[in-house]
Design goal:
homodimer; 207 residues; Arc Repressor Mutant, subunit A; Tetracycline Repressor, domain 2; 2 domains; 0% strand; elongated
Chain lengths: 207, 207
């Protein structure tokens, strides 16, 4: 037979989401969440450090999965491709949840407290990816820049997904954002759009 | 004649830096800073919200200057170049201070509280640059990615400068980091380092 706390974490999570959506995140106390779940504040604090953490309970598992995927990706895969592939996979998992994940994103965007916490989680994820790249032999500074680029692309793709209608192919959104980042920082003097293949001044001499 | 609080802000700042360096940031109270400066706690709070803010008093002015430079850069300048030039200029100003700026950086790195505050300031800077790019007609998502890339490059360059010996040409460090970011996210199939100029399979046919 299940103990009386059976499913406590998911009951607390569901109760918290309901209340946050009904009243707004800032207007909800831990006591109210516990009450709605039919549990005590003490039980709440056995599972979560504070009322923000309810929304980030999955972050460590996601970070571990991404770090694992980056650290174990084959050597011939370029670091940025390993990072984007790992984050695309993780993002696909989140976006599969659909409306629940969009509701969570709207909640985060509604509170500066939650936006700050999200930012800190993203920097931790970036740091962990950087370390994973270093274990693959990428030098520290290049590893950090690659990790930053990957996480920036992930955040862009995720925001687009969260504000889109219907389902979306998350990896496609990631690769789209990666292409945009590449275009955004491309040196103007080498801008491919100004010299489509076969028409560059250098090669034209030989054609 | 100056009032009795004359120079209060710089006296408080100097006292705070001294104490932070002597004892470590976490071990210092506002009361101690005020005492060392020969002022009251109340005076401290007229200038700073808390003891962390002493280290970030210059952030709004720097952000305004960078945003101004980006918003007013000539139209023919590529967005990423406008952002990097503005941040290189701001960084040159900071690095001119030399040892004082390095001491500040070491303090920030020594405290998770300060690292968090620094991170939040950097995200605010990134957001402000993104808005400035939009006023130049860059679409929102491209503006955000460009701003993120610029701030990532700035942070990389600044950390390198802070951990280097002697003076450094900050803009050079920025352009170096930008080149590294470009190389890091370059599609592998177009990797220039695999085909140095003049030796690419395509061009070799004509040589």
């Amino acid at each position: 037979m299940p103990r009386w706390e059976a499913g406590a974490q998911s009951r607390l999570t569901r109760a918290a989401y309901e209340l946050y959506i009904e009243r707004g995140f800032d207007q909800v106390t831990v006591a109210e969440i516990a009450e709605r779940a039919g549990l005590t504040k003490r039980t709440f604090f056995r599972y979560f450090d504070d009322k923000r953490e309810v929304l980030f309970a999955g972050a460590p598992a996601m970070q571990d999965a991404v770090v694992d995927a980056v650290a174990t990706s084959p050597e011939h895969v370029a670091p940025i491709d390993a990072v984007v592939a790992a984050l695309a996979a993780a993002g696909s998992g989140i976006t599969q949840i659909g409306e629940g994940a969009k509701a969570r994103q709207r909640l985060i965007e509604s509170s500066s407290d939650l936006r700050e916490r999200e930012m800190i989680k993203m920097v931790a994820l970036k740091d962990a990816i950087g370390v994973a790249l270093q274990t693959r032999g990428v030098p520290a500074s290049g590893a950090d820049l690659t990790a930053q680029a990957g996480v920036a692309v992930f955040q862009t793709a995720f925001e687009r997904w969260a504000h889109s209608d219907g389902p979306a192919d998350f990896p496609s959104l990631m690769y789209e954002a990666l292409d945009e980042l590449r275009a955004a920082i491309h040196p103007a003097s080498m801008d491919a759009s100004r010299h489509p293949p076969g028409t560059s001044p250098v090669r034209a001499r030989w054609n």
